[in-house]
Design goal:
- With 119 residues, this protein is an all-alpha fold.
- It has one domain.
- It contains 5 helices and no strands.
- It has helices at 6-22, 28-46, 53-61, 71-90, 105-118.
- It is globular, with a radius of gyration of 17 Å.
- Residues 103-117 have low confidence and may be disordered.
């Protein structure tokens, strides 16, 4: 393995990206959202859903308040909330979900695991 090996440069790039993102720059939230959308698109393809990136985003964000979203919308929400919770855990904060009543939080974990198993 020489210094010109592509895996060496890929690892160096990831290490640099990690150090930049640990400082929580202003663009980190946008990057997390883009990565969550990409992960949701990959899972949607594996789950044989027909929505693409814009369809997944629209399925969640254009749904009326309090209405059930489609499976594609739920998959996008799963990845988006997972990214937010992981950042909270890495920063030592306890994740607090504002969009769900307290009595439903204990069931959300099981649904999340069930959806994650599809991916």
């Amino acid at each position: 393995m020489g210094a010109r090996d592509p895996t060496f440069f890929a690892g160096a790039g990831l290490a640099l990206l990690d150090t930049v993102l640990r400082d929580d720059p202003p663009f980190a939230g946008a990057l997390r959202q883009r990565l969550a959308l990409g992960a949701a698109v990959s899972c949607a393809k594996m789950a044989r859903l027909r929505e693409d990136a814009s369809g997944l985003r629209d399925a969640e964000h254009l749904a009326s308040v309090g209405a059930q979203t489609s499976p594609a919308g739920r998959m996008h929400r799963l990845w988006r909330l997972t990214g937010e919770e992981l950042v909270g855990l890495l920063q030592g904060k306890t994740p607090v979900r504002k969009d769900a009543p307290p009595h439903r939080n204990r069931h959300r974990g099981r649904r999340r695991l069930r959806l994650a198993a599809v991916c």
